[in-house]
Amino acid sequence: MSLAARLKQSRTDKKMSQQALADLASVHYTNVGRYERGDAKPSSEVLNRIASALEVSPDYLMNGTLDDKAENMLTDQELLHQFRKIEKMPDDRKRLLKEVIDAFLLKSDLQQKLAS
């Protein structure tokens, strides 16, 4: 989801008009429309005011949630699904899996260096 889509979704979730958001964020309502269409991007100062008016973080408007970021970064959907399942495990189990992954990565790095 883009900044424009998250902005519009956040505004409509609050049942707020573009004019109401513009008034709260001290921007012209036509700019809110331009931001929501993706025709323009707000400055960092304006983004902060809009986020404050919508009661969300500027980071959320720019980048989305952690799940959004993970989905954008991981192209392997099976791996993403596995990480989501691991995240729900107790901390001691997660710590163990992290150690296993670290050991596997270290072994892989060493093998690669030895092969060079």
Ranges where pLDDT stays below 50 over 5 or more residues in a row are none
Strand content: under 5%
Count, helices: 8
Secondary structure: number of strands: 0
Shape: elongated
Helix content: over 70%
Number of domains: 2
Write structural notes for this entry.
With 116 residues, the protein is an all-alpha fold. It has two domains: 62 residues, Orthogonal Bundle (434 Repressor (Amino-terminal Domain)), CATH 1.10.260.40; 42 residues, no CATH class. Helix content is 77%, strand content 0%. The chain is built from eight helices and no strands. Helix 2 crosses helix 3 and helix 2 packs across helix 4. It is elongated, with a radius of gyration of 21 Å. The mean pLDDT is 90.
Task: Describe, in short, the structure shown.
With 116 residues, the protein is mostly helical. It has helices at 3-13, 18-25, 29-37, 44-54, 58-63, 66-73, 77-87, 91-115. Helix 2 packs across helix 3 (29-37) and helix 2 (18-25) packs across helix 4 (44-54).
